[in-house]
Specification:
Blueprint: E1 9-13, E2 21-25, H1 29-41, H2 49-52, E3 120-128, E4 134-140, E5 145-150, H3 159-174, E6 183-188, H4 193-196, E7 225-228, E8 231-234, H5 243-254, E9 257-265, E10 270-272, H6 281-292, H7 309-315, E11 319-325, H8 333-348, E12 362-364, E13 367-373, H9 380-386, H10 391-398, E14 411-415
Parallel strand pairs: 5-6, 5-9, 9-11
Antiparallel strand pairs: 1-2, 3-4, 4-6, 7-8, 10-11, 12-13, 13-14
The protein binds zinc ion.
């Protein structure tokens, strides 16, 4: 996958992505990343959204002006531009195969119906927003423990969460070893694309196309009128009345996602979900606080938080955390590094309760394969010897490449002993 930066670059149009034009080299990741990096090094403002955005199939409905809340346009003043920048990286499958990758040199040892996935896949369409914009996810890794990070649930008001995630995705593509073999990470850069396209203020750009606050629309102590600080905000006509919240809820459920980080701005703290018994929200949040340096905060003064995403998720058994960046501006290097530390810790995190989402026994050929927890000192070669198989077979069945590293505590499939 290491390819030289090409001499020429062309503009390519990708349907179905928020940032539809990515300057990239002729089919190479190197050029793709180089352009993103060049743009950020030169500090060039990203292209205005309207020049790169392809109109969604459904014509956006003009936004109603928020006449109900004229007292303030912003709870926290921002120095950000009126339009959030286009994410520097909405990766496409360009240069990255989303088709199953197998070792073409090796004759398949087993015929298996298990998919052998490549490290990266995307964009995956989750659903469409109220105004017809796509919600996209990207997959990194292939392990049985699925996790997710989600940006811009509050749209353009918290646009810096999306640029943080874009930069994070670039690093993940360069450092696939950060994702342990037992983990799959789903990345959703923009949960609220209508708000993202609507500027940066708290009244309109925080909300979705129905002017609903998507972090008040979940089925946990839901009320039709909620607050942002002390300001009333719309929570929808019912829990999950909004397509964006339904889409993310269903995606988390379908992908059996065990832990989620929602990025927000700009309180500079972390929050845990409401239920400490049915999920690992407390230990996850404590771990992330330690890794990032953001203190844990218990509540927001004056705010009645109803219909909150991580409260709902923690109740249904998904460990959820909110990380609040410290400002509404682009994160600086120091804060970016704190969040990379947090992400790495999130990827290596082992929940205290082993959930039922680990791979179950599978029959391949004549043998049953079972989950094995990696011990200190294990190597594929030693495991192959121990379980009377081959390194290639272990790699094929677990979707591992030569570059993949085994992590103590991670899980892979091995043939069941015949004893
Ligand atoms: Zn927020």
């Amino acid at each position: 996958m290491k390819i030289n930066t090409p001499q020429s670059r062309k503009k390519l149009l990708f349907l179905g992505a928020i940032s539809l034009i990515v300057l990239a080299g002729a089919g190479v990741l190197g050029g793709f990343l180089a352009v993103a990096l060049t743009a950020s090094l030169n500090n060039q403002p990203p292209a205005p959204l309207e020049t790169v955005q392809v109109l969604p199939s459904t014509q956006p409905v003009p936004r109603a002006t928020a006449t109900a809340h004229t007292e303030s346009t912003s709870i926290r003043p921002t120095s950000t531009p009126m339009s959030p920048p286009t994410p520097t990286l909405e990766p496409t499958t360009f240069g990255l195969s989303s088709t199953p990758v197998t070792d073409t040199n090796a004759t398949p040892i087993v015929s298996t119906t298990l998919p052998v996935l490549s490290f990266f896949e995307g964009p995956l369409l989750i659903t469409m927003s109220v105004q017809g914009r796509p919600l996209h996810a990207y997959r990194f890794g292939t392990g049985p423990s699925s996790r997710a990070i989600i940006g811009a649930i509050h749209g353009g008001y918290e646009w810096n969460t999306t640029t943080l995630i874009s930069r994070t995705m670039s690093l993940l593509l360069e450092n696939p070893q950060w994702v342990p073999s037992n983990v799959t990470l789903y990345v959703i850069p923009i949960m609220n694309p209508d708000g993202y396209a609507a500027g940066t203020d708290a009244v309109v750009a925080r909300m979705n196309g129905n002017l609903v606050d998507l972090n008040r629309n979940w089925d946990y102590q839901w009320q039709m009128t909620a607050t942002h600080g002390t300001r009333p905000v719309k929570a929808g006509t019912a829990p999950f009345s909004e397509p964006e919240t339904r889409g993310i809820r269903d995606f988390i459920s379908q992908k059996k996602i065990e832990a989620v980080i929602f990025y927000h701005s700009a309180l500079g703290v972390v929050f845990h979900g409401a239920n400490s018994e049915s999920s690992q929200t407390y230990p996850l949040t404590q771990m992330l606080s330690d890794a990032t340096g953001y203190p844990i905060q218990e509540s927001i003064p004056g705010q009645i938080t109803t219909g909150d995403a991580i409260d709902y998720l923690s109740e249904v058994g998904v460990a959820g955390t909110e990380i609040e960046l410290t400002s509404h501006a682009e994160v600086n290097e120091n804060e970016f590094q704190r969040n990379i530390n947090g992400l790495k810790a999130f990827l290596l995190w082992v929940p205290e309760i082993v959930t039922a989402t680990v791979a179950s026994d599978v029959t391949i050929g004549a043998r049953v394969w079972v989950t094995y927890t990696i011990q200190e000192g294990d190597m594929l070669s030693s495991l192959a010897l121990k379980y009377s198989t081959t390194v290639e077979q272990l790699q094929n069945i677990n979707g591992l490449s030569d570059e993949d590293v085994l992590y103590v505590g991670g899980e892979i499939l091995v043939p069941k002993s015949n004893e």
